[in-house]
Amino acid sequence: MTDYARAIAGPETIQFLPIAWSLAIEEKFYLLWPAALFWLLRSGRKPWRVVAAFIGGIWIYRAVLHAGLGVPYGHIYNAFDTRIDALMVGSLLAILSADAAADRQTARFVTSCIRSPWQVLGPLLSLLVLAGFDSQIKAHPWLSMTAFSAQPVLIAALLIQIVCFGPLYWRFLAHPALRFVARISYALYLYHALVLTEAHRITLSGFSGRLFGVRYLTPDKHPRIFLSVLPAILISVASYYCVELPFMRLRDRDRVRADSH
User: Fold this and answer.
1) Which uninterrupted H or E stretch holds 36?
2) CA 69 to chain CA centroid, nearest Å
3) Domain boundaries defined on the chain
4) E runs forming strands in the chain
5) What's the pLDDT tens digit per position in 221-240?
6) DSSP 210
């Protein structure tokens, strides 16, 4: 419930592992989506249409909350009911990918994203712009909520393109260093905010942030980020090998037992 704790009482409510608000949204999704998908498949409706309509409804819902009801931006940023569309876009992509094998019209829609390898530049550059101007975008709630809607759609298109053109243009993603980062990425996401919080306790009196007379770092922010990188990686590696990997081995062992029966 950390998402609603932050939404209702403010982000300062959660001091330990503040990033857990996004994990709380995921957990609710994991609890609700299987039942909803089961109902969709038995209802006779086309699941992709229902899911697409639901996503569009969330976009309208966010706008009504903010513009019509004056709900604070902090609530909209953190709450499950206002951010569930990002995960639903992933579900929509999965449904469309499955339907494309049997439905020619769906196949044409999905393949419209991969007519040319150059199409990858559209979503990729858009995501880079959104990331590069993140702080400026967040300063304007309307822009930020538009980014909420655009980001998962752009990522979905990018995923289709990476899968299709991966062997040709995305071989660098198979580099051992990047594969290692991918393995620890969940733990890195989970613990980096905690490490950053502790890094802010470090005093850097006398640090000017200048090199050869040119300011290249903001003394109150960037050095702490650099100081937190190595501890975050070490904690993530420990979490992967001491927590995640043993549980994945237990999972795989149970799967082997189930298959043997």
Assistant:
1) helix 20-43
2) 27
3) 1-169, 175-261
4) 210-211, 214-215
5) 555 666 778 888 999 999 99
6) E
